[in-house]
Amino acid sequence: MAFRRRKNTAAIPRTAPSFEYIVTEANDSFLWRLDDYPWERNVWNFHPEYEIHLLRKSSGVVLVGDHIGEFGPGYLTIVGGGLPHDWVTAVQPGELIDGRDIVLQFDPERLRGSADMLPELRELEPFLERSLRGIVFHGGTALEGAALMERMGTVHGLARFCLFLELVDLLARTDEYELLSSPDFQPVLDAASLDIVQRTLTYLFQHFAEDLKLPEVAELAGMSESTFSRFFQKNTGNSFSDHLAKLRLWQACKLLADTDIPITDICFQVGYMNISNFNRAFLRKHKITPSSYRKLSRQRLAMRA
């Protein structure tokens, strides 16, 4: 049975549960769900089940373990059990993105436990191990995988299960993928810690273009600067300054690619206080200058037209 969740909220929730309880119907081996955005489970969360996640619409910031990146329509990932994750889109108060996500969640132990009777399932073990770090898929694999996930919404029962096996086989065999989180990322997965992380990440996403300082955010978290620095590094895999820089540079890339705003104005709009620091940070992150990035983005857009 497919579940569709809808919640029209004004902003990203700041105090939602961090552990997601996943309930699969008695007649289903896995959960397939079409989600609007935002709703109450769109938070920095984790669960023991594996999750295959398709972003159908919009763009934004992807957080998987200690990975911070950007996504757009067609972004296809799998996240292993216990790995915190979130996909964040900036929305206006009252805005709802209809059917932004298709979410597929399954218990890997069901596959492992069935391998005695269906030995072909043992071929999935390396894939399940890789997925513990989070994987994003590219190229034809992402396109084919997205099509399979869409088709699952049109069928039920054995037909849907056959598409599930086809999907995991596709994702297990491909070499069109990138691992996301670092192998040594080990957050503290207790409810209180994850709640603080969720509220902090939300605050940073909402205010990264401002002149944010570590003492201010540490105070909001109810910690000293040194305690918060260690806590944030442990539970996100990034230092406070690195996380803030990645958010600012993500927004800069969007503005460079999608607008004609002068680069100097973009620098200040995303939170940098001077153009030299902005250019240096952009070059360090992307290996090219902001002007070169804009030129390449325009060339790619022209090639698609």
Question: Can you characterise this structure?
Answer:
With 305 residues, the protein is an alpha+beta fold. 44% of the residues lie in helices and 17% in strands. It has a 7-stranded mixed sheet, covered by helices on one side. The protein starts with a strand and ends with a helix.
Write a concise keyword list for the protein shown above.
10 strands, seven-stranded mixed β-sheet, 11 helices, 17% strand, globular, alpha+beta, single chain, 305 residues
**From the alpha-carbon coordinates, what is the Rg to the nearest angstrom?**
20 Å
Q: What is the number of E strands?
A: 10
Oligomeric grouping of the chains: single chain
Can you tell me the residue ranges where pLDDT is under 50 for at least 5 consecutive residues?
Answer: 1-17
- Major sheet characteristics: 7 strands, mixed
Helix fraction by DSSP (H/I, runs of at least 4): 40-55%
